[in-house]
Design brief:
The protein is α/β, with parallel strands linked by helices and 230 residues long. Helices cover 44% and strands 20% of the residues. The protein has 8 helices and 11 strands. It has a 5-stranded parallel beta sheet with strand order 2-1-3-4-5, with helices on both faces. Strands 6-7-8-9 form a 4-stranded antiparallel beta sheet. Helix 3 links the parallel strand 3 and strand 4. Helix 2 runs parallel beside helix 3 and helix 6 packs across helix 7.
Amino acid sequence: MGGIMIKILVVDDEKEIADLLEFYLKNQGYEVIKANTGKDALRFIDSYNIDLAILDIMLPDIDGFTILKKIRESYFYPVIMLTAKVEDIDKVMGLTIGADDYITKPFNPIELIARVKTQIRRTKLYNKEIESDFIDINGLHINMDSHKVYINEKVIDLTPLEYDILLYLAKNKGKVISAEELFTNVWGDKYINNNNTVMAHIARLREKMGENARKPKYIKTVWGVGYIIE
């Protein structure tokens, strides 16, 4: 979400409420996508990169619980449910299906905005933790907590040095890393031009990962420059 305007889907068949929410959300700098029917909501869910949804339960065509289920089949962004009902069973059902918060009509717009901000902060923190603990690249999974590496869910047995080499390349995904940079940062020593240590370890690492040396999937050689994971 960083640097990109946050998109919020508002689903409510009451135009006055949808417009009110749009007014307050836009004042906070959010981009608002409005849907007055469940059918439109389902279409927008797959058409926009939504960051949070505010979802009314009572809609004229498809109920909010059905839409929530559809969202949770593919997406993990926060969902705040709106309802005119106060029955606990509705709240329990929504939370069980995957709602993140619940607010009853009539509501204070300022309170709803506060809840929106809370959910967005929580999501940003969660995503930051995920980014800092795991790296996933086309079936290559690195767990930085356990120092375990998987390829297509199969554990790859690496030495600590091999792990550090792979991790450095993965953290710099998309960037060509020279042998000198790799040696300096992983071995922590001064690089000597005729040192074949990096090449030998890359070859061993590729072997353990089941890489085709001529056409590697993960660690690719940029001849005369260095190595890259794309």
